[in-house]
Amino acid sequence: MEVEIAIERLFLYAGWADKYDGLVHSTPFRNVTIAMNEAVGVIGIVTGDGAPLLQFVSLVAPAIAMGNTTVVVPSERWPLLATDFYQVLDTSDLPSGVVNIVTGKRAELAPVLAAHDAVDALWYHGPSDLTAQLERLSVGNMKRTFCTQGRERNWFDGREGEGIEFLREATQVKNIWIPYGE
Predict the structure, then answer these.
(1) Each residue of 18-53: pLDDT tens digit?
(2) Pairing verdict, β 99-101 and 69-73
C-alpha cells in the first residue's frame, strides 16, 4: 500500500509542477500587484522513520516540483528505501544534483543542514528532540523551517501527507508592483 500511495503522490506533484502559480492583486492605488511563486532554492529535508518511502516521496516531490534542489537525510532506520528510490530518479529526466541523499544519524546530520549557509530552508519531520536546536541553528542565516514539532503525520492520509501546504513551504512569494493609468 505504501508503494501505491507513493506513486500516486509522484503523479500528484508532477501535475502541480506547472499549476501552482501566483496571483494578481488589486491595490488601493493605481497599480496591480503580481504575487509570483518562486523556488526557495536548496531545501534540507530530514525525514522520520514512519512510512519511510512514502514520507520521503511526500517531502521530496513537492520540493522538486516547485523547482528546488534537495539534500535529504532519509529514515535512519530504513535508509535503503530512499537510496533504492534514487535509482528511479537516476533513470528519469530529473537533472543530476536535484535530489541528494545523505544517509547517517539524523542527530549528527540535521544540525549541519540547519547551520549551513548554502541551505535556504530546512524541513524536519523527525522526532521532536532535535526541533528546538534545529530552529535555533537556522536563525543565524534566516533559514525557513518547516517542522512538525514532534507531531507525527499520518502520511497515508491525503489531508496530512500531501497538498497545498507542502507547495507553499516549497516556494517564496515575490511581489511585483505594476503602475497603470495616468
Answers:
(1) 888 888 888 878 888 899 999 999 999 999 998 999
(2) parallel
Each residue of 105-141: pLDDT tens digit? 999 999 999 999 999 999 999 888 899 999 999 998 8
Beta bridge partners of 175: 35
The answer for residues whose C-beta is within 8 angstroms of residue 59's C-beta and 6 or more apart is 45, 47, 72, 123, 125, 166
For the chain, what is the domain count? 1
Beta-carbon contacts of residue 163 (< 8 Å; ≥ 6 apart)? none
Closest CA to 169 of 147, 139, 136, 146: 146
Tell me the three cell numbers of residue 92.
Answer: 528519469
> What's this model's pTM, rounded to 2 decimal places?
0.92
Q: Domain containing 48 — which CATH number?
A: 3.40.605.10
Containing structural domain, residue 45? 40-170
Q: Are 64 and 98 within 8 A, CB to CB?
A: yes
Q: Cell numbers 512538525 label which residue?
A: 148
Cβ neighbours of residue 132 closer than 8 Å, sequence gap 6 or more: none
